Input
Amino acid sequence: MSLRKRIADSAWFNNSIQALITSYVRFAYRTSTWERSGFDAMDDCVRNGEPVIFVLWHQRLIMAPFLFDTSLGRICALTSAARAGRLAGQILVRLGFETIPMSSHKRHVALSREVLRLVKEGSSIGIAADGPRGPARVSSTVPLVWARMTGCRVFTVAFAEHRVFRLPTWDRQMLPKPWSRGVLICQEWTDPVPRKPSEDQMEQLRLSLEASLDEITDKADIAAGFPVDAIEKAPRKQ
Output
């Protein structure tokens, strides 16, 4: 095993990186001014013990724990079982989320049973619609599958900040900067998902959810002080 891989797989190294990033995100959040809007309906559901499907773009994932009030109820995020996904998942855990690693080795039936059990126990489900590998800002059908299976209401969320770091990842992952101003926005996606949608119906629903996520994300960017045509979005894969 190479030295690089041994370091990357080191529990001490990963715990240190997780702690550092978690502390930084908390610091950036606490030193910035935030405007929060549109969360009443989702908060009421969670407060009343009604789980929801919580959806955002992977680019805005790092701020997910500040977009869902874990003092009102549980939430479990679906994350990648790959090394980067495990790191991101543990940062979310440190910030109050629970996670389920999704692995190509885990049978779909087993994952479905695990998610359904959590929902029955009152836990909401968090999903990055284009994660974990993209294409960026192109929604998968995963949120629709869980909405169909659970019957939960679907809420799209986004954060934006006047000043951010953009990481050199496939989606230009955004990290908030300290002493800035930002917005946290939530909006319900209300298209009904049939119990047995056709392929055409599923594609139309996927496009609708994707448009809703783009709309709320662009709205957040504008509210944070960026005109949409000036925002450098992550390129979509062809």
Notes: DSSP finds eight helices and nine strands in the chain.
